[in-house]
Write a structure and sequence with these properties.
The chain is mostly helical and 417 residues long. It has 20 helices and two strands. It has helices at 3-20, 23-26, 32-48, 64-92, 102-115, 136-139, 143-147, 153-169, 188-201, 204-207, 211-227, 230-241, 248-261, 264-284, 291-295, 297-307, 309-318, 331-356, 365-379, 390-404; strands at residues 61-63, 179-181. A two-stranded antiparallel sheet has the order 1-2. α8 packs parallel to α11, α11 runs parallel beside α20 (390-404) and α19 runs antiparallel to α20 (390-404). The chain is globular, with a radius of gyration of 21 Å. The protein starts with a helix and ends in a 13-residue tail after the last helix.
Length: 417
């Protein structure tokens, strides 16, 4: 079994994963339960298959500028498609809290920061009074658009395009100078399918949510890991954890692993750079004085979903994830599984790597273990909004791009910047 077989198998699995995240979960002819199981299982395989050591195949090297040109052309066409379609969608769906309150709340938070007001105070003009609960890295990027009185959704769209650039740029260092494996352009195939179906079935991802900012951070992290740059990794980890905390425990275990058993110098650098970045964001946005809000979110989400079945029942049954397989009254059990998997998956992954690293593709371990953590995190959510899963789906494409251009096993330890 050669690399080509594994590569095409991963491409096929990612196509299925993208369809589960768009077509299968929305069409009446498809069973949501089947889509959830398929999405979960496929995600596990995508995380594990790249680790298998196989015999190298013939590599189709051509000048890097040709591969880069094909990718630029593909991304340009995707960008134009998104611009045209988003313009139509934005015209139909206003930034109004009565449609979706996330962006309006964040816009007010940005306005308060500029005006020197209390950012995390109760917002009286939305639902008669609502407390802002958003972590700083997820709303701060909307500040420039807010100040220029531009639709904040274009900021999210711009960052989404940046995320796609990181996606197709996540690759190892070139084995042959100025040449690249042409097969890596196949990343565009599932990407085109995903974007096309996205605008058909889940355009609210762009029109009503800020989730593309989270996607940008996670694909920036994938790119930083591929570059083996401790400074970039630290900044990316900080941004990810201060937007969505889905990799918090993975990040802690990763840094501890490097500190104790890996490159201690790189680990120390990641600690102080990441700490400085995080503290700066927390102080600038006033979030440092409201940590209790963020620490109380898991309990608040559990309380809300348990006591408001009329509001979240359809979400649980029609969304992705494993929540639909639990009796609604027993969702607290799934929440326990969520916590256990968040702790155990990175712990088991790094422990297994330490003892069996001679048998796996070492250079792919960080990306694969992070993908596994994302799969378990999102599939065990008790509030399985479909748009949340796009982060994990797009991370698969970055992993695929790396694998298609992967040549040799090397150490996972980040080198000096």
């Amino acid at each position: 079994m050669g690399k080509s077989f594994i590569a095409f198998l991963i491409i096929g699995l990612i196509v299925v994963e993208t369809l589960c995240n768009t077509l299968y979960i929305n069409e009446e002819d498809y069973d949501p339960a089947c889509a959830s199981i398929t999405y979960f299982v496929v995600g596990i395989f995508i995380a594990l298959l790249p680790l298998i050591r196989v015999k190298p195949d013939t590599e189709w090297y051509i000048p890097t500028w040709v591969v880069r040109g094909v990718k630029i052309l593909g991304l340009s066409l995707i960008g134009w498609f998104l611009y045209v379609e988003a313009t139509k969608v934005f015209a139909k769906v206003p930034v109004d809290y009565r449609w979706a309150d996330m962006l309006p709340i964040m816009k007010i938070m940005c306005e308060r920061l500029v005006e020197g007001k209390e950012v995390y105070a109760i917002i009286e003009q939305i639902w008669g009074g609502i407390e802002p609960i958003y972590l700083p890295a997820i709303w701060l990027p909307l500040l420039p658009a807010t100040m220029m009185e531009v639709d904040v959704r274009w900021t999210a769209m711009l960052l989404f395009m940046g995320a796609l650039i990181f996606c197709v740029s996540t690759r190892p260092k070139l084995k042959i100078p100025n040449q690249q494996n042409f097969v890596s352009v196949l990343t565009l195939v599932p990407l085109v399918i995903l974007i096309h179906h996205w605008m058909i079935y889940e355009s609210r991802f762009f029109s009503m949510t800020e989730e593309s900012i989270v996607v940008f951070y996670y694909l920036f992290l994938a790119y930083s890991i591929a570059r083996k740059n401790p400074t970039l990794i630290a900044i990316a980890l900080s941004l990810c954890m201060l937007s969505r905390y889905s990799l918090a425990l993975w990040a802690v275990i990763y840094v501890l692993y490097e500190l104790v058993l890996g490159d201690r110098k790189a680990a120390i650098k990641m600690i102080w750079v990441g700490g400085l970045c995080s503290l700066s964001l927390l102080f600038i946005t006033q979030a440092i004085w409201h940590l209790d809000i963020f620490l109380g979110l898991p309990a608040n989400y559990l309380d809300a979903i348990v006591n408001e079945e009329h509001k979240f029942g359809a979400l649980v049954q029609q969304g992705l994830g494993l929540a639909k397989f639990y009796d609604y009254a027993d969702l607290s059990r799934l929440n326990q599984l969520f916590l256990y998997s968040a702790i155990l998956s990175p712990l088991i992954a790094f422990t297994s790597y330490h003892f069996f690293k001679a048998r796996v593709n070492k250079e792919l371990f960080l990306l694969c273990s992070l993908k596994l953590s994302l799969v378990l995190f999102y599939n065990t959510l008790i509030m399985p909004f479909v748009y949340l899963f796009f982060t994990s789906t797009l991370f698969s494409l970055a992993l695929l791009n790396y694998y298609l251009d992967y040549h040799r096993p090397v150490s996972i330890v980040p080198r000096k910047a």
